[in-house]
């Protein structure tokens, strides 16, 4: 279970925006140690990423990421075979994203989805999404609501070094280029099952049936990721909400926020606080053990129309 989290102590504010001033920085070694102890280890994450399963954009089958091939143009869509890629191209060419075509906004689109695909390797973050789902689906009232909706997590990205980025802006140097970005969660919404993308609906049907067949009785939640433009990522997840989690949420839990500016405050663990906790956790991961920080993707190769399948890179 995700422990009460701590707001990034290094989020800072300028004292005088007009001059070159050092930003207030508070480092909290005790907080860093607690963070490391309460989140998955680097080794665990690495193992999990290796075993992540992606959904074939063509046929909807799930396979291990390293057994799939990525669209050579956007490197987002994944396919289990050349045949699936070919048969899906007519549909996929409409949303096949080339970073250079999107201008400023599009530059990091694929980075968002690349990082979002790794959230499934991190149970602490997935727990946050599940806690949110309990509230949003109203599972404390009626656990069958998990069957009528799916959970859509909208992600974006933000400069990893917010302080350096803000420094550059405020001191008039302009936004630094090629800055490392980290994954952010913008919103978590429930979508009626019948309005969910076809791949998600198919996934839901198969996964839920398999879960029930294996004797699962807990509310089973389907989670998928999109970027801010609504493009869907390659991983979809089915997760049961265990009784302990339901019990925890029924106690009306609180969360402690420690901020360099505002001191410590205790807030109810509501939907907004859970998203904040999710984002804090990624921002606190300065050593990038979660692998949720990255530089923008390299420019795509020319001749995108050919869009030949390339081996999925690690
Ligand atoms: Zn396929
Ligand atoms: Zn593509």
Automatic annotation (TrEMBL):
SUPFAM superfamilies hit by this protein: HIT/MYND zinc finger-like
Would the keyword Disulfide bond be found if you checked this record's keyword annotation? no
The record's keywords, sorted A to Z, are: Metal-binding, Zinc, Zinc-finger
Q: What is this protein called?
A: MYND-type domain-containing protein
Its lineage reads: Eukaryota, Fungi, Dikarya, Basidiomycota, Agaricomycotina
Q: Which Pfam families match?
A: zf-MYND
Question: What residues form the membrane-spanning segments?
Answer: none
Can you give the residue ranges of the MYND-type domain?
56-96
Annotated region described as Disordered, given as residue ranges: 293-314
Which Gene3D superfamilies does the annotation name? 6.10.140.2220
* Superkingdom per UniProt: Eukaryota
């Amino acid at each position: 279970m995700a422990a009460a989290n701590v707001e990034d102590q290094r989020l800072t504010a300028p004292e005088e925006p007009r001059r070159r001033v050092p930003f207030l920085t508070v480092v909290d070694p005790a907080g860093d140690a607690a963070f490391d102890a309460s989140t998955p280890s680097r080794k665990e994450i690495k193992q999990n990423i290796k075993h992540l399963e992606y959904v074939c954009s063509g046929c909807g089958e799930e396979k291990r990421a390293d057994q799939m091939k990525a669209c050579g143009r956007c490197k987002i869509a994944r396919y289990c075979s050349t045949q699936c890629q070919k048969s899906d191209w007519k549909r996929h060419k409409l949303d096949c994203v080339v970073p250079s075509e999107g201008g400023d906004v599009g530059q990091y689109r694929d980075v968002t989805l690349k990082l979002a695909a790794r959230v499934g390797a991190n149970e602490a973050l997935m727990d946050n999404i599940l806690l949110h789902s309990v509230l949003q689906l109203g599972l404390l009232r009626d656990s069958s609501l998990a069957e009528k909706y799916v959970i859509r997590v909208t992600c974006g990205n933000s400069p990893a070094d917010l302080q350096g980025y803000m420094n550059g802006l405020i001191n008039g140097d302009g936004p630094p280029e090629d800055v490392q970005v980290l994954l952010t969660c913008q919103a978590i919404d429930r979508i009626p099952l019948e309005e969910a993308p076809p791949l998600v609906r198919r996934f839901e049907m198969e996964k839920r049936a398999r879960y029930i067949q294996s004797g699962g009785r807990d509310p089973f939640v389907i989670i998928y990721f999109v970027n801010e433009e609504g493009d869907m990522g390659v991983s979809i997840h089915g997760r049961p909400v265990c009784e302990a989690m339901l019990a925890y949420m029924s106690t009306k839990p609180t969360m402690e926020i420690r901020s360099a500016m505002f001191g410590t405050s205790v807030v109810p663990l509501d939907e907004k606080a859970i998203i904040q906790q999710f984002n804090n956790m990624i921002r606190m991961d300065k050593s990038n053990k979660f692998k949720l920080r990255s530089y923008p993707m390299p420019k795509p190769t020319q001749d995108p129309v050919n869009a030949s399948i390339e081996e999925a890179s690690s």
